[in-house]
Design a protein that fits this description.
Number of domains: 2
Strand order of the largest sheet: 5-6-7-3-8-9
Helix content: 25-40%
Radius of gyration: 23 Å
CATH architecture of the largest domain: 3-Layer(aba) Sandwich
Strand content: 25-35%
Structural class: alpha/beta
Order of helices and strands: EEEHEHEHHHEHEHEEHEEEHEHH
CATH superfamily of the largest domain: P-loop containing nucleotide triphosphate hydrolases
Length: 315
């Protein structure tokens, strides 16, 4: 039995969580635990259920079935206690206030806020402190939103597609700021469809597809789960009918006259191909996270997440 004072070992806990919008189960029986101090990425294509999961986590929606807790308490209780900061999509800039005024105002709403100077420094916006929020560039505005999310000194910060529409330089600046926050021992949960961001900045990657968790592990574990290496050969008049029976082969894809074999034992696969005299145009390469993602989700398109519009209106 977890207590209600925020001493649970888990910052985030989903237990059988379900949220449906009409016939669409945007979150479909999710079980997920995030330990304190972890940085976890929610990875999935647009409409996979990431935004709905985040809305449940923040108490913006309630699950139809199951339970969601933050630090052993209902989300709204942890939010009120200042344990949670959030940076959601498409928040509107506040007119006629400076960055410092905005961050100071938000910090004043929490019981134990982060010093404003620290929030500005962590978010990399100290030099923007006297600028008006509604006169900043897109990248600058995104960093200010991060400072606002940090203002309450939360133990958990939730970031929904935090680098969407940012250029490369702004994305690097944002992740430098997020890393500095995480190194203080805080918990970070962020959603993204940038695979390289998930791989570079998360301790764990949780892949969501059609409202369900289809994989949970490090980038390397996901690559191994999808078949650790790719072996490709020229078919040269042959067929790919029985290639999936070769040792180590997880799946086979034919692209024109090339066969792409996903394998968890490339040595055994290549030796078997050699015994068949089928080594023509041989290439062996490690599977990328993109390959793993497509394998884990079946390369499927998903219906639009019905909560996305609702979440944006709530911000």
């Amino acid at each position: 039995m977890t207590d209600r004072a925020g001493t649970s070992p888990h910052a985030v806990s989903f237990t059988g969580a379900v949220k449906a919008f009409g016939a669409v189960r945007a979150v479909d029986g999710v079980d997920l635990e995030v330990a304190r101090g972890e940085t976890v990425a929610l990875l999935g294509r647009n409409g996979a259920g990431k935004s709905t999961a985040i809305s449940l986590l923040l108490g913006l929606n309630e699950p139809d079935e199951g339970r969601v807790e933050l630090f052993g308490a209902p989300p709204e209780e942890s939010v009120r206690a200042g344990r949670v900061g959030a940076m959601l999509q498409d928040a509107r800039a506040v007119p006629r206030v400076t960055v410092r005024e905005l961050v100071s105002f938000v910090a004043g709403r929490y019981p134990e806020p982060l010093p404003v100077a620290d929030a500005l420094e962590l978010a990399g916006v100290t030099d923007l402190a006297e600028r008006r929020v509604d006169r900043l560039s897109g990248g600058q505005t995104q960093r200010v939103r991060f400072a606002v999310a940090l203002a309450g000194n939360p133990a958990l910060i939730v970031l929904d597609e935090p680098t969407a529409a940012l250029d490369v330089e702004a994305r690097h600046a944002f992740w430098d700021s997020m890393g500095a926050y995480a190194r203080r021992g805080h918990t970070v949960l962020f959603s993204t469809h940038y695979l390289e961001e998930a791989d570079a900045h998360a301790d764990r990657i949780v892949v969501i597809d059609r409202g369900r968790i289809v994989a949970d592990g490090s980038g390397e574990q996901l690559r191994r789960a999808a078949g650790g290496n790719l072996v490709s050969i020229d078919l040269a008049g042959g067929t790919a009918d029985d290639l999936e029976l070769l040792p180590g082969v997880v799946s086979v894809e034919v692209r024109g006259r090339r066969a792409l074999l996903r394998t968890d034992d490339s040595d055994a696969t290549v030796l078997a191909l050699a015994r068949r005299d089928a080594v023509r145009g041989l290439e062996v390469a490690p599977a990328s996270l993109d390959d793993a993602f497509l394998a884990l989700t079946g390369g499927r398109s998903t219906p639009q997440d019905p909560s996305i519009a609702q979440d944006r209106e709530t911000v």
